[in-house]
Amino acid sequence: MNFKTPKSTSLDLSKWTTVSTRLVKSEGKREPEWVEWSILDSLWHKFYSSYFLLYKCQPGAEVDSVLPIDRLTGSLGKSLEHFYPFAGRLLKPEKDQVARLFCNNAGAPFTHKRFDGVVSDLMDVEQFEPNELISGLYDVHPAAELFDASGVPTLIIQVTDFKCGTRCLSTSWSHTVADGFSGTHFLTSWAQIARGEPISLLPVHNRSLLMPRKSSRVLDGGACRFLHNVIEEPAVLQLALAEEGIGFRTFKLSRRRMDELKAEALRDSQVGPLSTADCVSAHLWRLITEKRGHAPHELTRFITLVNCRSRLRDFPAGYFGNCIAVTILPVTVGELLSNSLGHAATIMHKTIEELNEDVIRDFMDWLSVGKFQWSALGDEPFMHGDPSSNLHTVQASWQNRFPFYELDFGGGRPYLALRNGFRMSEFSTGMFFALPTSTTSTEGDLSISIFGEKNMLGRFDDEL
């Protein structure tokens, strides 16, 4: 395999030692097969999802007591029998084509490393900045535009040992192969096998369940009802580069602050009950837009990623792949900021509630006729509405229900789980991720990581 290493890095490599590397393959025997993407898979062909978990061993104990390497690799091989796309490769038949998935059991790269220092030497867990050296993606770099004949892995694992008795488990997977729900389904199943338990929910690999219909109003040329907006012909959304660069900033959002935001929004709600996600998302949309300083007449969009498994009739809960739709809510900056928090939360709530079976199927039909696609000539996505700039967009990924803190591989649960979101596209500028906080925090608190322009992030106070 020809793993590509980035040309430059500001990270110190002198404290790192590679203990071992291996390819973990499925223990089952399957004939190699090509897997066709569903229409929803095709939205994510340039992205990897990367997370890490920190486990602490008892004083005086060896780090192998919390995450034994042999147990991890043995149970991973058994897990890949069920989640076999994660043992495959992404291959590009031609330079400008989208990569295809070949389930050939080439194996998931598994690297064991040692860092000469403690966790706090490498990262500030309260103000975490993404770090590729703990992800495995530094050595097995999946972002190369040109794949060699062996392709690139769909799943990458790295275990890192620290002098403080902490062991870090990092997992990174191709978003085209699996969304966050399928990725954490795999992690849950892997942990169950490591504990000697049966898998509680078997994966379903039938991606034809999300293929476009043979006939529909949208396929016949009619308008696509994307919630209460009508999507017409798309335009190219030019990806603007922030002059000051882009970065991450992580905030803690307390349960108390979320309750305050919810109470404020409910005072002016037009739909009755609002979820915490409605209220916090509306607050962050308004806050990010305010910090950007756009003029009142300019357009701002809010994009939410929504798990559709429970919104589709008779759809298997264990579906493995991408089953996420995006809701796009465009308003003017003036409307967003001159009205109350409750107004923004209300229109957001209505938008998400209207995402039913018919709308989701319309959306997939709309995608299938090329209304949204990634340009073969560059990174510009096609999108409806004002095509001026990605710097007018705010995006949300709510991951607070992902079961990171339940991932016990036989030696205890992690004390911290974080998203390691480096190498994100300029298209994702203005995106925030909501995750549960560490086990030492108050129950119900959230960790909010915002990816965006450095000037905008610098205008935030320490609290949200």
Automatic annotation (TrEMBL):
Pfam families, alphabetized: Transferase
Sequence similarity: Belongs to the plant acyltransferase family.
InterPro entries in UniProt: CAT-like_dom_sf, Plant_Fungal_Acyltransferase
Protein name from the UniProt record: Uncharacterized protein
Organism, as annotated: Riccia sorocarpa
PANTHER family: HXXXD-TYPE ACYL-TRANSFERASE FAMILY PROTEIN, TRICHOTHECENE 3-O-ACETYLTRANSFERASE
